[in-house]
Write a structure and sequence with these properties.
Elements lengths: L5 H7 L7 E2 L1 H11 L7 E8 L11 E5 L10 E4 L2 H10 L3 E3 L1 H8 L7 E4 L4 H4 L3 H5 L16 H10 L1 E5 L5 E8 L4 H17 L10 E8 L4 E4 L6
Parallel strand pairs: 1-10, 4-5, 4-6
Antiparallel strand pairs: 2-8, 2-9, 3-7, 9-10
Helix pairs in contact: 2-8, 3-7
Function: Protein L1 is also a translational repressor protein, it controls the translation of the L11 operon by binding to its mRNA. Binds directly to 23S rRNA. The L1 stalk is quite mobile in the ribosome, and is involved in E site tRNA release.
Subunit structure: Part of the 50S ribosomal subunit.
Family: Belongs to the universal ribosomal protein uL1 family.
């Protein structure tokens, strides 16, 4: 069993593990319980009433957090010609076609998100094993395979995140940093939950939002009431 340090044990005392808090109170407690010397990420864990083994109950999508994630995303765009120029103008960190594909094949991964125009996917698809294993493969459902590369880059830079159901039926997603004020974290959390509610599969039966918890990178979690989001 993992041993926790003195600071963590003190932080745990701030949050009642058996209690369920209103969203605003939960994020305040998580901020108070964050004791690391770096600006910790605040993450939401949402348990959904779906069967992750069934394709018709898959939950996956994107949402632009109103206050961003607090992390600067490095965006790579696979595009040619005018679309490459559009991507550069929109603020993409890296733009190219075969040259970028070659770099990745040689082990370069100095980026966080990939965007590709549809006409590039036949070549980018050859990187499936390399990009897919890191969750970096461009995907139409995530809005990262598109001819509107400028919009894609701008949304990612503004705080767009992708969410995806895991094998345990949960969604894990960042909603900001401990340095954000509680109102910003609360609004980002609401944006995420609203997006998940909109993404509810038609095949899902019974209670959909089963549980929500928020925590910082190194701190304890606080359970959040789901009532206000139903």
């Amino acid at each position: 069993m993992a041993k926790h340090g003195k600071k963590y044990l003190e932080a745990v005392k701030l949050i009642d593990s058996e209690a369920t808090y209103e969203p605003a109170e939960a994020v305040e407690l998580v901020k108070k319980a964050a004791t690391a010397k770096f600006d910790e990420t605040v993450e939401a864990a949402v348990r959904l009433g779906v069967d992750p083994r069934k394709q018709d109950q898959a939950v996956r999508g994107v949402v632009v957090l109103p206050h961003g994630t607090g992390k600067t995303q490095r965006v790579l765009v696979f595009a040619k010609g005018d679309k490459a120029k559009e991507a550069e103008a929109a603020g993409a960190d890296f733009v190219g076609d075969q040259d970028m594909i070659n770099k990745i094949q040689q082990g370069w991964f100095e980026f966080d998100v990939c965007v590709a125009t549809p006409d590039m996917m036949s070549e980018v698809g050859k990187l499936g094993r390399l990009l897919g294993g890191k969750g970096l493969m461009p995907n139409p459902k995530a809005g990262t395979v598109t001819f509107d590369v400028a919009k894609a880059v701008q949304e990612i830079k503004a705080g767009k995140i992708e969410y995806r159901l895991d094998k345990a039926g949960q969604i894990h997603a960042p909603i900001g940093k401990v340095s954000f004020d509680a109102a910003q974290l609360n609004e980002n959390l609401k944006a995420l939950i609203d997006a998940l509610n909109r993404a509810k599969p038609a095949a899902a039966k019974g209670v959909y939002l089963k549980g929500i918890a928020v925590s910082s990178t190194m701190g304890p979690s606080a359970r959040v009431s789901t009532a206000s989001y139903r």
